[in-house]
Amino acid sequence: MVTLPALFLTSVKAGAQTPIQLQAAQADQVLVWTADNGMTTYKSAPTTATAGPATIVFENSAATGNTTGMTHTLTFDTSTPGYNHDVTLNIIASPFDAAGGRHEVQVNLTPGKYRFFCAIPGHMMVGELVVTDGGSTDTTAPQVSASVAGDKDANGNYIGSATVTVSASDTESGVDKVEYSLDGGAFAAYSAPVSVNQVGAHTVRYRATDKAGNTSAVGSVAFTVVAPQPTDTTAPQVSASVAGDKDANGNYIGSATVTVSASDTESGVDKVEYSLDGGAFAAYSAPVSVNQVGAHTVRYRATDKAGNTSAVASVAFTVVAPQEQDTTAPQVTAQVSGEKNSDGAYVGSATVTVSASDTGSGVDKVEYSLDGQPFAVYTNPLVVNQPGAHNVGYRATDKAGNTSNVSTATFTVVAAQPKDTTPPQVSASVSGNKDANGNYIGSATVTVSASDTESGVDKVEYSLDGGAFAAYSAPVSVNQVGAHTARYRATDKAGNTSAVGSVAFTVVAPQGQDTTAPQVTAQVTGNQDWAWNYVDSATLTVSASDTGSGVDTVEYSIDGQPFAVYTKALVVNQPGAHTVNYRATDKAGNTSNVSTAKFSVVEAGSDCSKPGKGNCK
After folding, report:
1. pTM
2. How many Cβ atoms from other residues are within 10 Å of residue 342's Cβ?
3. DSSP string across 495-506
4. Ranges for all domains in the chain classified under CATH 2.60.40.10
5. H-assigned helices in 549-606
6. What distance in Å separates the CA atoms of residue 352 and residue 506, rounded to the nearest whole number?
7. Best label site of 311, 371, 404, 443, fewest CB within 10 Å?
8. Contacts of 374 (CB under 8 A, 6+ apart)
9. Which tens digits make up the pLDDT trace of 298-318?
């Protein structure tokens, strides 16, 4: 592992490198990068700047969301064609360094484009900074928001204290200052999160001013602080379990995994620690794998947020070397079941049950492929209800990596005779921002829901203001000012159509037009291997906010497919590299720029999840 210097900065001019004095006068423009626990993107980063002197601030601290102590760097690219190479910057920051994770340096930027990234292996944080030669006039006030954090009681009150964090951004001249006012007091400069520990109801107002002198409208957050409960004097409950393959004597073959669990019903668990074979206690963050042959003892303890530490407990176990290598693939069979007609076809559906056994290392996984699709992990019997001829390929792999030949089960499914004579249940609701008279401001969204407990819903239709019925596939947004009536109906797969229902509502013009697109972010989570690949699956969570008309829709596109409406966290389990684009549109029709999240998924047990197999991303 290469050790990076804490701070190295030079400016390249006329082919020579000249060190920049870190104590130079403050530049007019300040460009701020922040980092948190993530390793795929910086928490925040500027995208534009003006040529000339600039102060670069890089903060990776608890205040910016780094709660794990992870180190990040901010490095300017000096070799890739197409980018400016006249500033060499490599700042390494950690919440535990002498500067508390916040570093500040002076540079001189020239028109063009700079590429920046995190130089630590495994981190995929990268972006571009576009520098112009200035001349434009900024007339738009900064975007500013605030959030309140702290421990809450069941009523949503903050126990003991609440911390108000104000965030501001300006894509033109840049933020010059942020101010806040507590409980009606005078506005003061905001430089760090504000802690409020006075018991009672509070209101924090806030505003931001950019370097062009534009000041945002005043925003506010309200909250209540209550006195904390009596001091917690009870230590956490802590336990441990050992898992792995055992031999006849109860010894673990090859390796054993120790999982420690802790709970605390009062102040909550603060940290869990373990010690292996008499070593020093270390922080426990994930199950501990022990593959050294011999007898072992793991001691463990937990401490709550009130500082109470449990008594030390322990588990003992023995790891033995695995037996001779298994070179025989598993035995695997499949059985098709269901109701058959006189031709031997399955009526309505067929259920494929796959069974596998291995007398050597044991079965690791069973996979299946339906009608030529890619193989997927088999966990439960496969129900096939699509009419037509089908073939299911199946195979099994043991823990030694031996995979059986692919076998195939073939069968035909025919549709069951219709017996459903009951139309679907169908309803509709109208949502949107209302005025005092119950009218919808700017637009209203009509959502139609239908259900059928027999043959199932086949189609849903709607008609707006007496028009022809059309297919309903997504909530209908109505932004035409005036009174409206939406009619709706549903038809099931047996051909039964419900009576026509209707909802009436009125749309009025909004007071002021929203021209600012929503803010949208995404986070990728899941179990990662040594090379930061996601094992078996990765979960992408997209979040959007809009302080004007409000968020209307969030959309995503995976691997170049058309954009689709985002309704819940996206689980990607297809092995390989993936790119997810995402965007958000507010109720005034403003759509954000498309952002991108990139990651890779590998199968558990594949070469890409084993150390020493190279860069498998």
Report:
1. 0.25
2. 5
3. S-BPPPEEEEEE
4. 143-226, 237-320, 331-414, 425-508, 519-609
5. none
6. 53
7. 311
8. 574
9. 999 999 998 999 999 999 999
